[in-house]
Design a protein that fits this description.
With about 375 residues, the chain is of the alpha/beta class. The chain has a single domain (about 10-370), classed as 3-Layer(aba) Sandwich (Aminopeptidase), CATH 3.40.630. The chain contains 12 helices and 8 strands. It has an 8-stranded mixed sheet, with helices on both faces.
Length: about 375
């Protein structure tokens, strides 16, 4: 009864830096040998120690498989510590024979979708773009968010640090309620490049790399179970399965069959997340066939008020184009943001690994049995 749920070696899949996470991931792959095929997509720019950046795509199993499990990490860079650990844990278990791929199933791992944010411990990329708001049609006028426009300079002042108890934010919250407040702040905006949840005005590097991988996946001719690994929202250590497929769509029906009542839907108001624009989900939705689904596995950390405070301070101190960040508060901001999205504590790590394994198993069962 007193033996640990996970051994020290099992928990060693968690890393403290992007470089260590990438090396650990690639090291685990080496044990698979020819069972895996690696493609490296270089990423322009460098990490804080001058290290090169890249997104790694790994295909494990039959290249012609009709069913494919896809695991994505670090869409929001700093959230990659847990996503990388779950991916590495699966690779280790496959290499040791602890788990085996069913006939007809392949696994695709996309390690570090946003390697710049992972390396610098930011949610955004080098342009300040939130990758998970960038998947919109830029040939059309960008989506409008009047709520964010109203709150923009209260959230991230042009100069100085944000006020945690800003009266303008408090007044908006009192008038519109928590749901509408979160929708305005985090739903996505395309006007303030130094602001929160900025979707950009053109395709970013990470999106360009994902478009390459989407084409390789041939989504319309396969059954896909995509699990996008995130952290931040919800109770500490809880892994919520969030589905942004349209109501009554085949993707939503698949999610309900595969994951049962654990699935939450942002549009219903019952999820820790609110509906958002420009999600990577939508790029997959457009290409998926009727026997596929995409879910986000979101691991909770700390109260949203604390997360928002840290994000506002991060955007005030570490603005796009300033790296290396020389503001004397930059290191403190980096450390607190990392803590907010990656509590490097064995209890939290164990919850993440357990739930990660569970959701992977549910996804595979769903793929194999419909």
């Amino acid at each position: 009864m007193l033996s640990p749920l996970f051994s020290h070696r099992e928990l060693s899949v968690f890393s403290d830096t992007y470089r260590d996470a990438e090396q650990g991931f690639l090291g685990a792959l080496a044990a698979l040998g020819h069972a895996s095929r690696l493609r490296t997509l270089p990423y322009e720019g460098l990490g804080p120690d001058g290290e090169p950046l890249a997104t790694q795509r790994v295909w494990i199993g039959d290249g012609d498989a009709d069913q494919v499990l896809v695991l994505l990490s670090a869409v929001h860079g700093v959230e990659g510590f847990s996503g990388s650990a779950i991916q590495q844990d699966l690779v280790r278990r496959l290499a040791s024979g602890q788990v085996m791929l069913p006939q007809g199933l392949a696994v695709v791992l996309v390690h570090a979708v946003n390697p710049w944010g992972f390396a610098w411990c930011r949610r955004v990329d080098e342009q300040g773009i939130d990758i998970n708001r960038n998947f919109v049609d830029f040939s059309q006028p960008p989506p409008d968010n009047p709520g964010y426009r109203q709150l923009a300079r209260a959230l991230v002042p042009e100069q100085g640090m944000p006020d945690p108890a800003d009266p303008q934010l408090a007044a908006y919250l009192a008038e519109h309620g928590q749901y509408q407040f979160e929708l305005a702040v985090s739903g996505g905006q395309y006007e303030f490049a130094d602001g929160l949840f900025y979707g950009g005005l053109a395709e970013c590097q990470a999106r360009a790399n994902m478009e390459i991988l989407l084409a390789e996946l041939d989504c319309g001719n396969r059954a896909l179970a995509v699990v996008d690994l995130h952290t931040g929202l919800g109770p500490y250590g809880h892994g919520e399965i969030i589905c942004d497929h349209s109501p009554d769509s085949p993707g939503m029906e698949a999610a309900r069959r595969w994951y049962g009542d654990a699935v939450t839907v942002p549009e219903s108001g019952a999820s820790c997340s609110v509906p958002k624009t420009g999600l990577l989900d939508f790029a997959f939705h457009q290409r998926m066939g009727p026997h596929s689904c995409y879910v986000t596995l979101e691991f909770g950390t700390y109260p949203i008020s604390e997360l928002m405070r840290c994000l506002r301070e991060d955007h005030s101190v570490r603005r796009p184009g300033q790296e290396p960040f020389t503001d004397p508060r930059a290191e403190q901001v980096r450390e607190q943001l990392k803590q907010m999205f990656y509590p490097a504590e064995p209890q939290w790590q164990s919850l993440v690994l357990f739930r990660g394994r569970q959701v992977i198993q549910l996804a595979v069962q769903g793929l194999m049995h419909g």
